TrEMBL record:
This is Peroxide operon regulator. The keyword DNA-binding applies. The keyword Transcription applies. Keywords: DNA-binding, Repressor, Transcription, Transcription regulation, Zinc. It comes from the Bacteria.
Length: 158
């Protein structure tokens, strides 16, 4: 898989992002998780990220506000958010990155990922049609794939 792009500016938050933050906090508290300042700040890092972030990126960001926060704490929060479907995980050759979940992430979906700007387009698609007749009468239980390529705005600019 290609390496994620680097060095892009942080997004500034829009009203829709704040609604989303509020919804994520509600989801956490419905689950019974404590809403700490650090957890809120971690959610903000994901909301403001222009693309994918690694656990190390989140730790670096949070350390600026909460010096001494441990990597373990950050990682546990990321796992909690992921378990609740607030963020999604993307596995690269040499690292694991995270991103805010696609809207409607509860439904089965796949990702079209632009390798230039890291835009993600989610796609609803039934993969079972591709695997109706597999060798060795193989029975699929789970599908896992993402499509890497170039989005329309990046195609226009190259
Ligand atoms: Zn998604
Ligand atoms: Zn693009």
């Amino acid at each position: 898989m290609p390496k994620p792009a680097k060095g892009k500016a942080r997004r500034s938050l829009q009203a829709a992002d704040l609604d989303r933050l509020h919804a994520m906090i509600q989801r956490l508290s419905a689950y019974g998780a404590r809403i700490t300042k650090q957890r809120k700040q971690t959610l903000l890092v994901f909301l403001e990220a222009p693309g994918f972030v690694s656990a190390m990126d989140v730790h670096n960001d949070l350390s600026k506000i909460y010096p001494g926060i441990s990597y373990d704490t950050v990682y546990r929060n990321i796992r909690l958010f992921r378990g609740l479907g607030l963020i999604e995980q993307f596995v690269y050759d040499d690292c694991v990155k995270f991103k805010m979940s696609c809207i409607h992430a509860q439904q089965e979906h796949y990702h079209l990922i632009c390798v230039h700007c890291e835009k993600i387009i989610s796609m609803h698609f039934d993969p079972s049609k591709l695997t109706e007749q597999l060798p060795d009468h193989f029975r699929p239980l789970q599908y896992k794939f993402d499509v890497y390529g170039c989005c329309s705005s990046c195609s226009d600019s190259v």
